[in-house]
UniProtKB/TrEMBL annotation:
InterPro entries according to UniProt: P-loop_NTPase, TLDc_dom
Domain TLDc stretches: 1-160
Protein name as it appears in the record: Interferon-induced protein 44-like
Pfam families per record: TLD
Organism the protein comes from: Seriola lalandi dorsalis
UniProt cross-references to PROSITE patterns, sorted A to Z: TLDC (PS51886)
Length: 406
């Protein structure tokens, strides 16, 4: 088969991409190679999205359309409020936004890209264009394609997001930098329903090799977690403890006498709280409480605080449910750092909480799945890795303070 070379110049591709954000174009279908048929187009392009379709004619016009929706052969119209048609006037791109979003794209088996009833490329499996301005898109036909409806070429590109944060999709081995501490203790804090317990269950699932539900998690207006729990992770059911402990707490609530008490947070950070301590929002922990650690060592204290969504003076923020927030991430979790929407949310969280973007880490917890997803595992483990790095910073400070007192 012939090599696929794009008819669009690099400058023209950059011009199109400038309309879509931080993306690049990947050529999927070229009619002169694959055939001017609906069947060839659908074989190459179905289930790919977003896409840019471009028609070329002998009069020198380059024109087409963009849709975020994946192509199919359902015969139905598909809603897309971001769809648009375009043509090149020299190096300038003229854009014609969709005027009837409910009918933006139609999925017809016997044709190529089908934008409403306004512009159809490879119409009826022929090297032809169907043009009917005013049907869900408004444009001037002479301006669009010079009224030359014979195609010399048709190309369809998938729009691929460029990662705005690098991500190493593999796990790493960790060991605390202080000899007196065998396990880093990470405190999970956040509002009710933020996903603290679900995050532990998801991390635990990664190391157990199957989806687990050790910590109580679910949807409720009040905290399902009522005890302070220190969860030690193991590599497999009979495996050795890993060098990290995730500490789960009650959720934070706005009303007085509900949720985690501020004084209890201070006791947790200092290492006073015993495992399985029963929280009482109206009566914080005191020194006479059974199991109270009166002289906690470094190994008993919290070495890193991970705030899940809302908190104050955070060290690390876990942005959960990213798959529900963005369809691109829902399709493939590896798109998390290609999603412009997720980046915007992370920037908003960063601004509201006063933390750098590097301290905001997106994750997808296991909630409905019965089996593990390696890419989801790696995203979760990258969050754990950040926690361990923050703990190392804490240990560095402790070591420096100790050296100054000697």
């Amino acid at each position: 088969m012939s090599t696929m070379n794009s008819l669009l110049t690099r400058d023209q591709q950059r011009t199109i991409c400038s309309q879509l954000g931080r993306v690049k174009l990947q050529l999927l279908y070229k009619a002169s190679i694959h055939g001017f048929t609906g069947a060839a187009f659908h074989q190459r392009c179905d289930n790919h999205s977003p896409t840019v379709s471009v028609g070329f004619n002998a009069s020198g016009y380059m024109f087409g359309g963009y849709t975020k929706q994946p192509f199919s052969q359902s015969g139905q119209y598909v809603q897309d409020d971001q769809a648009f048609l375009f043509t090149f006037s020299g190096e300038k791109l003229l854009r014609y936004p969709v005027t009837g979003p409910a009918n933006a794209v139609r999925m017809i088996a016997n044709s190529g890209p089908y934008f409403g009833e306004a512009l159809i490329l490879v119409y009826g499996s022929k090297a032809e264009v169907h043009s009917n301005p005013g049907n869900y898109y408004t444009f001037n036909a002479a301006e669009m394609h010079g009224n030359d409806l014979n195609l010399t070429e048709c190309e369809v590109y998938e729009v691929e997001g460029k990662p705005w944060r690098s991500m190493i999709w593999k796990s790493e081995i960790y060991k605390p930098t202080v000899s007196s501490v065998s396990q880093v203790r990470v405190l999970l804090i956040g509002a009710v329903g933020a996903g603290k317990s679900s995050f532990f269950n998801s991390i635990n699932s990664v190391f157990r090799g199957h989806v687990t539900s050790q910590a109580i998690a679910g949807c409720s207006t009040t905290s399902l977690t009522t005890q302070f729990r220190s969860y030690s992770l193991k590599a497999g059911r009979e495996g050795k403890p890993l060098p990290i402990v995730l500490c789960d707490t009650m959720g934070l609530e706005e009303s007085t006498g509900a949720g985690l008490d501020i004084d209890d947070i201070s006791s947790i950070l200092k290492g006073h709280l015993p495992d399985r301590y029963q929280f009482n929002p109206s009566a914080p922990l005191h020194s006479e409480t059974p199991g109270y650690h009166k002289s906690p060592g470094l190994k008993d204290k919290i070495h890193c605080v991970a705030y899940v969504i809302d908190a104050w003076i955070p060290q690390l923020v876990l942005l959960t449910k990213v798959d529900e927030a963005c369809p691109l991430v829902s399709t493939d979790v590896r798109n998390v750092y290609k999603s412009g929407y997720i980046k915007d949310v992370m920037q908003e969280v960063s601004a509201r909480l006063g933390v750098p973007m590097s301290c905001v880490v997106p994750v997808k917890n296991y909630s409905e799945e019965l089996e593990l997803d390696p890419n989801c595992d790696i995203l979760l483990l990258s969050a754990v890795n950040q926690m361990l790095r923050f703990a190392d910073n804490y240990f560095d400070d402790i070591t420096e303070e100790q050296s100054l007192t000697l």
